[in-house]
Design goal:
With 214 residues, this protein is of the alpha+beta class. The chain is built from seven helices and five strands, in the order αααααβαβββαβ.
Amino acid sequence: MSVSVSAATLNIVLNGLFEDNSFVSGVEATAADAEVFKALTAAPDAAVFPHLARWYKHIASKGDAINSLKAAEAPVAAAAEEDDDDDIDLFGSDDEEVDEEAEKLKAQRLAEYQAKKAAKGPGPAAKSMVTFEVKPWEADTDLDELEKMVQGIDMDGLVWAQAGKRVPVAFGVKKLQINATIEDAKVSTDDLIDKITEFEDHVQSVDIAAFMKL
């Protein structure tokens, strides 16, 4: 039995899928992504379907190479193990509730620090060291090129470490871990994250792994 859905409904469903998944199946683009890409009659509106639009642009950047994407690998684990795998975050993201508590703690500590600083009056520029974790789309992403792009971000009060680290994640995927020293009054970590994620052909997401006052 076949079921037909409107283009609008399909876009809504796919936008929900790509909110939590990089690709249709697995951790890299496959023939399944090519099939879905060809089923779309036009590029989705990024303002309405941001997650779908990001995936669409990434697949479109492959050009004719999408016709030679390999099929997704069939799961080899037992059914019970597959159920366990559903709870595994391939990119090592922390539980959302833990992340939320960590962010609240960071904000509280920063507020306390700013209050103490205001009470003491003008002094040396407050600085912090921030460790960013930049996660690429695929295992074959050139992390050397990505590192140069990140270090190319130039802002007053920002100094990048000379070299970053390549940290294994899963299935051959590695993420770039790189430190930056920032002047708190001049550089916002949110602005930095926005600038890094602008390299959307290379970057899937950016997290702050560590934040330390100097």
